[in-house]
């Protein structure tokens, strides 16, 4: 069994732990902005392919005490890098955290990354007479170093680019939700695939598209060009192809209930439709340009989930208070029998909805502290 760590958005650790357990992970331990777990190589590939909430899946190589820059160099050289990196493969090092102990302090991520890179390539040069080149953009092997207080954790990044970038969304609007956050919101709503799902502020379609992929059992990793582990020396191409074929075979063809969204901006609806075509659900998910004042429920009951503007990124010049009041009026007057969830980072605007909430779930949209507010509509 190998130690892994899934990095996730702040506040989603417990939810991500549940997802990892469902995928077969063992010794699952939620932490700060991440979840530790154990598993074999098949699980590593499977989590990258199927997990909807993490950003990256790291393979832990070692954790050491570290007092200064020289100490960091020494502990990194204690790792045998030959099984993980050949001189013919490119390398990149990403460093986070800082150490402010004695000697040369590690308080700058670039300097920390440089120390780690030097330790690795110096070991290669001494043992093999050759060394890897650095490619910060698309390396064959990406090394992650995290320093907290006097502890240094060295890992390999198995994901490559962040997993929230599914690869199915070439067209995006202004300030779109990350796909991973959209997936988390859907899970927090408790939506089931036999219920209608509707987003009246759908933008480029992230929430309905994530809902459709969950309902149709479409693995989010199927749309990515590649994962980091595919260029590792020990990459098991046969195992990976088996997992890909199993994922493709598990895909369902028909939704059980309405899934879709609307937006007053017809250009955003065009983007949503383009994205739906790209991930092969254009015949399943419905998008239509409609102003909030004109929307009607697409079914007698279901889950309404939306992320209206709240003044931090877009539409600052708009009377958002009036928009939220209108949203509350529409929910009250037309969506009896539904359950609504509204994500907002502005408490004053939420109050303008004018409905009694049954739950307020704290959640972060990037660095913005938000609330996912639940309304039972009768």
SSE arrangement:
Blueprint: E1 2-7, H1 13-22, E2 26-30, E3 34-39, H2 41-50, E4 56-65, H3 69-77, E5 91-98, H4 109-128, E6 141-148, E7 151-157, H5 179-189, E8 196-199, H6 206-215, H7 237-250, E9 259-263, H8 266-278, E10 286-289, E11 302-306, H9 320-334, E12 339-344, H10 347-351, E13 359-365, E14 368-376
Parallel strand pairs: 5-6, 8-9, 8-11, 9-10, 11-12
Antiparallel strand pairs: 1-3, 1-4, 2-3, 4-7, 6-7, 12-14, 13-14
Helix pairs in contact: 2-7, 3-4, 5-6
Count the E strands.
14
* CATH domain topology of the largest domain: Rossmann fold
* Fourth-tier CATH superfamily name of the largest domain: Vaccinia Virus protein VP39
Report the β-strand fraction as a percent range. 15-25%
Our count of helices gives: 10
CATH class of the largest domain: Alpha Beta
Main sheet summary:
7 strands, mixed
Percent in helix: 25-40%
Strand order of the largest sheet: 2-3-1-4-7-6-5
The N- to C-terminal Cα distance equals 51 Å
Write up what this structure looks like.
The structure is a single chain. The chain folds into 2 domains: 2-157, VC0802-like (2-Layer Sandwich), CATH 3.30.2130; 179-219 and 249-376, Vaccinia Virus protein VP39 (Rossmann fold), CATH 3.40.50. A 7-stranded mixed beta sheet has the order 2-3-1-4-7-6-5. The protein has a 7-stranded mixed beta sheet with strand order 10-9-8-11-12-14-13. The termini are far apart. With 378 residues, the protein is of the alpha/beta class. 31% of the residues lie in helices and 24% in strands. It has helices at residues 13-22, 41-50, 69-77, 109-128, 179-189, 206-215, 237-250, 266-278, 320-334, 347-351; strands at residues 2-7, 26-30, 34-39, 56-65, 91-98, 141-148, 151-157, 196-199, 259-263, 286-289, 302-306, 339-344, 359-365, 368-376. It comes from Vasconcelosia minhoensis LEGE 07310. GO terms for molecular function: RNA binding; rRNA (guanine-N2-)-methyltransferase activity; rRNA (guanine-N7-)-methyltransferase activity. Residues 43-158 form the THUMP domain. InterPro entries: RlmKL-like_Mtase (IPR000241), RlmKL-like_Mtase_CS (IPR053943), RlmL_1st (IPR054170), SAM-dependent_MTases_sf (IPR029063), THUMP_dom (IPR004114). This is RNA methyltransferase.
């Amino acid at each position: 069994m190998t130690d892994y760590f899934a990095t996730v958005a702040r506040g989603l650790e417990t939810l991500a732990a549940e997802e990892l357990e469902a995928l077969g992970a063992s010794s699952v331990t939620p932490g700060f902005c991440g979840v530790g777990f154990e598993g074999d190589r098949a699980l590593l590939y499977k989590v990258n392919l199927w997990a909807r909430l993490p950003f990256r899946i790291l393979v832990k190589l070692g954790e050491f005490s570290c007092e200064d820059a020289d100490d960091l160099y020494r502990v990194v050289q204690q790792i045998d890098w030959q099984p993980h990196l050949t001189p013919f493969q490119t390398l990149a090092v990403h460093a986070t955290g800082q150490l402010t102990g004695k000697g040369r302090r590690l308080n700058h991520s670039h300097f920390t990354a440089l120390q780690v890179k030097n330790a690795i390539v110096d070991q290669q040069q001494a043992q093999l007479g050759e060394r890897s080149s650095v490619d910060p953009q698309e390396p064959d092997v990406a090394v992650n170093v995290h320093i907290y207080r006097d502890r240094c954790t060295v890992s390999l990044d198995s994901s490559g680019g962040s997993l929230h970038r599914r690869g199915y969304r070439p067209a995006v609007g202004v300030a779109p939700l990350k796909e991973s956050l959209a997936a988390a919101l859907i899970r927090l709503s408790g939506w089931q695939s036999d219920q209608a799902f509707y987003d009246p502020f759908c933008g480029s379609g992230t929430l309905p598209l994530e809902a459709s992929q969950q309902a149709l059992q479409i693995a989010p990793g199927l749309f990515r060009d590649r994962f980091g582990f595919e260029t590792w020396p020990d990459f098991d191409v046969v195992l990976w192809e088996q997992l890909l074929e199993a994922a493709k075979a598990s895909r369902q063809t028909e939704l059980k209930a309405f899934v879709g969204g609307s937006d007053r901006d017809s250009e955003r609806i065009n983007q949503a439709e383009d994205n739906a075509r790209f991930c092969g659900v254009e015949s399943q998910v419905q998008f239509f340009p409609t102003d909030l004042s004109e929307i009607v429920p697409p079914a007698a009951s279901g889950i309404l989930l939306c992320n209206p503007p709240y003044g931090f990124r877009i539409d600052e010049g708009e009377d958002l208070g009036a928009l939220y009041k209108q949203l509350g009026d529409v929910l009250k007057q037309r969506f009896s029998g539904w359950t609504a969830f509204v994500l907002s980072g502005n408490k004053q605007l939420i109050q303008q909805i004018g409905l009694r909430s049954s739950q307020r779930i704290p959640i972060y949209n990037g660095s913005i502290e938000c609330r996912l507010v639940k309304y039972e509509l009768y």
